[in-house]
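user: Please review this fold.
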Amino acid sequence: MHLKYACALSLLVAAPSWAQSVPALFDVTGVRADDQLNIRTAPGVANPVIGGLAPDATGVEVTAVSDSGGWGRINSGEGAGWVSLRFLAQVGAQNWREGESPLRCFGTEPFWSMPIFLPSHRIEFHAPGDGGFELVGDAGALPTTAFPPTLAVPFSGMKEGMVVIRENAACSDGMSDRLYGLEAQVYWRGDTVGLSGCCTLGD
């Protein structure tokens, strides 16, 4: 086998299996107690450091993985940066498409927020002027698609409808340089205009 193709194959084999299931949550590991995990402007140690994660940081959301599989993109402050995946350990083996992870979806124009407390049935909806209200979402075997990866969560209560969540490694909140790994569309039964925004893991 030609050396070039052998190297490419070895990179593919070495790539971690979870690289296909981001966004996911990770804990920092293997960093000295007096050091930090550097956040860089782009994948690679030659790129400038723009911040750092504490050696005991937990619940770090990786929203994208570099082409090499060795770097993960995270949000920090008002922007996004890259950290070495050598120093991150995935929290559990849950995939957001399995409907087992809490999600918080949100958007602007108008501002809205929808925490989805999977795998329970509870959903909240908040928007300026409405005071917020609770919804009852389906849980368990939720509708999904594989190509592209999506998850649909039907809900009922004060309003009926569905929120559809899909991969989008460049989802922007429109107000910062942060980049999220999931986008959402909220459809209300009987309304011709829905909502669009991004989602992050956790509640």
Observations:
- The mean pLDDT is 89.
- The chain is about 5% helix and 45% strand.
- The domain at 3-90 is CATH 2.30.30.40 (SH3 type barrels.).
- The longest helix spans residues 3-14.
